[in-house]
Amino acid sequence: MTQNFLLAYLLIINAAAFLLMLADKHRACKKLWRVPENIFLLFAFLGGSVGILAGMYTARHKTRKPKFYICVPVILAAQILFIVWRMGT
Question: What predicted TM-score, i.e. pTM, was given to this entire model?
Fold first, then answer.
């Protein structure tokens, strides 16, 4: 039950993060109100790092900002290490 919940959570948060990144790129092109950068990093921290990375490179959005091309992969690596560590205990 817990594993199913975790998998569903990760699928939802990564899909939302991906769509948020695409929406922000669209809004940037139209010069509309933008999503604050900290919201993207929050999504990554909460488990949506794969969705943020996929959105970055699919939409070519935020790929030149060190805050994103460094921090998001570091967050993902930390999440992977945490999962590996938890599986071992």
Answer: 0.91
